[in-house]
Specification:
Length: about 130
């Protein structure tokens, strides 16, 4: 009598976090076992959707971080290539104040928020030998 439950348990155990699209076979009879399989499948659907949302969020966050970091890199590269036009005394504090701000109430491991540097704040370089 418990064999169908054991089969369902074994199939459920085979489903991993890397493949939440799998579902259990729902028996044709509308009994407790069928309702349990349907409930498990609904749960797997919710877990799959939540995992997809989390992956999208992480991908979006990574993309959003690349933009300010690219801006920082560009400003430092321009300053390095054109040291005569760089304001070295103010460059680091300026970059820091425009990009990293403490967030009150955040735990110490996630205390910093990256803020976009405005493109108009990029240093302008005078071409070498030019005006």
């Amino acid at each position: 009598m418990l064999r169908p439950v054991d089969v369902m348990r074994a199939r459920t155990a085979e489903i991993t976090g890397t493949d939440l699209s799998r579902r259990l076979d729902v028996p044709p009879a509308n009994d407790a076992l069928g309702r349990l399989a349907t409930t498990f499948n609904d749960l797997l659907g919710r877990l799959d959707a939540a995992t997809r949302r989390q992956r999208r969020f992480v991908a979006d966050a990574a993309h959003e971080l690349r933009s300010p970091l690219s801006t920082l890199h560009t400003r430092l590269e321009v300053a390095h290539r054109h040291p005569e036009s760089a304001r070295w005394q103010t460059l680091a504090p300026d970059l820091t104040s425009r990009t990293i701000v403490p967030e009150p109430g955040w735990s110490s491991c996630c205390r910093w928020k990256i803020r976009r540097a405005c493109p108009e704040d990029l240093p302008t370089a005078t071409p070498r030998g030019g005006s």
